[in-house]
Amino acid sequence: MEEKKELLKKKEKDMPDPKDFTTCDATIQMLNKARRDGVETAFERAHTMKACPIGSESACCKHCFMGPCRLNARDPYSKVGVCGATIDTIQARNFARFVASGCAAHTDHGMSMLDLFREVVNGHIKDYRIKNPQKLEAVAQSIGIETEGREMMDIAKDLYSELERTYTQVEGEIPFAQRVPPKTLETWRKYGLVPRGAMREIMEMMHRTHMGVDQDYTNITKQFSRTALADGWGGSMVATEISDILFGIPTPVSIEVNMGVLKEDQVNIIVHGHEPNLFESMIESVSEPSLVQAAKAAGAKGINLCGMCCSGAEVLVRHGIPHAGNFMSTEAILVTGAVDAMCVDVQCIKQGLAKVADCYGTKLITTNPRCHIEGVTHIEFHEHTPKECTDEVVIQAIGRFKNRTAKIEIPKIKNAGVHGFSHEYINYMLGGSFRGSYVPLNDNIINGRIRGVAGVVGCTNPRTKQDWIHVELVKELIRNDVLVLQTGCSQIALAKAGLTTPEAAHLAGPGLKEVCETVGMPPVLGIGSCVDNSRILIAASEMVKTGGLGNSIADLPVAGAAPEYMSEKAISIGQYFVASGVFTVFGVTFPTVEGTKFHKHLFEDLEKMGMGKWGFANDPGEMARLIIEHIDKKRKALGIDKARERQLMSMADRRSLDAAA
């Protein structure tokens, strides 16, 4: 350990100031402490390990063992791979495999939730139950299941059988295709994009991208679009809807975020990952009287449960559990020395957490059979006996609290936010219990008070300054009367910046500000974890159904952005939004070579086919420009455009607003 500290101190001379890595003050404080302690994090690793310039643009192919073949991204048509694959084939295959992997992650998560639902419905699991029968009926009705006069469990069994087709069906259309606006569905059918079943689509996608199979980038694009749609309108939507049925529909709740939610005099437990059933059981375990008493016997005042990443976002919108930080802060929070146990399940779990946890004596515990980490304690979570796992995690955390040796330093930073704006709550918020509808939203878009809607979602990535693009982009959008929806780690960035409270309406343009103040809502609506992007699809469909804004999702004045994405899941999310009809802008990097036919296909041709299209920018101002220009183009096509100038803020303007806040 001492040798490693010395080595890191030598590296420090070449390292940027932590302020160059992140805008999060708590993370900056912990990165400085980590350097003093000789502990390395992903920020330093990203700085010292430069991204491969060929790989980042997908100009290489390693799908067989005649290669890998590297093409010249500066002159992409100057040569081909050993098999003759062109740059367009290579890029399309790589992109397709990103989509297949991302779709597999979300659909496997959704299938886990559906497995849990089946066991609850069949009476084999007693620790979970259907908390929202009304949501059960609504979901069943949306896919044509008769509910009138029927017992709840009979409806639930039919719903399970129908949703199982999302995964196993080999022909036909997935159940939630019935929710898609007719004109959008017509476009999908025209090009053969309607998903059959997730397993079929992922399997076929992997086959097509094998050496010597599909070698037409337009044909590959059709299949990865169908695969992505099996994620957004399939696995992700199943995960969200089943979670709502079992654990409750989110409603707005005021929560605290950032590392200041840790408490030095309590046993601190962090849950990090994506599957809500683990966290729901943990909520019960930390309230177990015998375990609370054990914590007090160990000298603690109680047990403090906090979330991180998307697990945290799931319970944040249902229970108001404090949230300690997003993806790029998961190592930094361990540096506080105050975390007694970090319990993880699947997705976005850095292997580097193991070394950081070891440095501070924190118990890092894996719980899911899909995710083990070398050298890390594994306590398997079983839905039939969930508290056997979560009780043991609490016991381990209490033991660590009792024997703490690490120096404790908790940033005294907490930020307030309001989150939990589900589709159902937005419906109620706009129209009340008896007149709930999207009519007020559509009306205010038509009359120009709200310019359009943008989903700004996704991860944080050490290749860019943590949180900065998220925050600056959203400030620019709301200033220009664009209502913003948020999921995943992005909403934590915005909560830390104070943009998820009703008081943030003063930063919005005059039209959006008026709507926010009338309704009492923030200009930025946090709606859940990354699988909950499906809520945005449902909202877009409802906007079409409500009327006045066209007949297809592609007609709507809406856009999406993932400014700091980092995972294959994000590519799948982006593609299902594009295939659904939404202009979608990514930041950091984009895995295509500009000027190639495949790049043009994604950035131009798909829109001409009646879908959305991709966009790319690294600067938040440029991202805002692309989104606002697209929204204005759609407004003009709908005949609801008004003469208005886009207002861009200077850095001096931003500083004055920040000072005023």
Span of the ends, CA to CA: 44 Å
> What is the CATH class name of the largest domain?
Alpha Beta
Principal-axis shape equals globular
Number of strands: 15
Strand order of the largest sheet: 12-11-10-13-14-15
User: Which bin fits the share of residues in helices?
Assistant: 40-55%
Tally of separate domains? 3
What is the CATH fold-level name of the largest domain? Rossmann fold
- What class do helices, strands and sheet pairing give? alpha/beta
What would CATH call the architecture of the largest domain? 3-Layer(aba) Sandwich
Q: Give the radius of gyration.
A: 24 Å
Which stretches are poorly predicted, pLDDT < 50 over at least 5 residues?
A: none
The major pleated sheet works out as: 6 strands, parallel
Beta-strand fraction estimate? 5-15%
Q: Mean pLDDT across all residues, rounded?
A: 94
Number of helices: 25
Structure, described:
β1 and β2 form a beta hairpin. The chain is 49% helix and 10% strand. The protein has 3 domains: 77-247, Up-down Bundle (Substrate Binding Domain Of Dnak, Chain:A, Domain 2), CATH 1.20.1270; 259-402, Rossmann fold (3-Layer(aba) Sandwich), CATH 3.40.50.2030; 419-660, Rossmann fold (3-Layer(aba) Sandwich), CATH 3.40.50. The chain contains 25 helices and 15 strands. A 6-stranded parallel sheet has the order 12-11-10-13-14-15, sandwiched between helices. It has a 5-stranded parallel sheet with strand order 5-4-6-7-8, with helices on both faces. A two-stranded antiparallel ribbon has the order 1-2. The two termini are 44 Å apart. The model has no long low-confidence stretch (mean pLDDT 94). With 661 residues, the chain is of the alpha/beta class.
